[in-house]
Amino acid sequence: MIFYIVCLLIVGGTLALDLITKYLAVQNSFNFVVIPKLVKFKLSYNTGAAFSFLSGKSWAQTFFIILTVASLLAVVCFFAFKIIKKDRMSKWVGVALSLIFAGALGNLIDRISMGKVRDFIFLFYETDIFPAIFNVADVCLVSGVITLCFYLLFIDKDGLFAKKNKDKKDGN
Predict the structure, then answer these.
(1) Whole-prediction pTM value?
(2) Active site residue: 18, 128, 138, 158, which one?
């Protein structure tokens, strides 16, 4: 049970960090260089998804809100199922899903309250490399997905590749 409390603390802490940094970006109209040509803080608004995908489409906000709510409900149901069944959860999975949940919730709050997401971290802003702009919620989402993929591909010996490994043991 302590692990689930830790997961809640991860969600609360990272969500708070996301909302506080977004608030500061808006209140201070962020526009300053952190590392020349590499990292710049500048407030920007995104009505789309990653790299402004579907930005400006009238139906996109509704689509992203529905998709996010469904994803958040899936994570809550997964945790609830594990708790009710008293089934152990991998720490990797718990941390990954907590980060994904916090990131999705942070951007959902923006979408519902403002109709757009506040971004402020620019990478590669004056280079030939494609620039990226994001926020703390996006960092949480990407970190959580990478952690989950790493776990499924390299650590979970009894999950993703269980059938393949069993077949090899049986001589098939």
Answers:
(1) 0.87
(2) 138
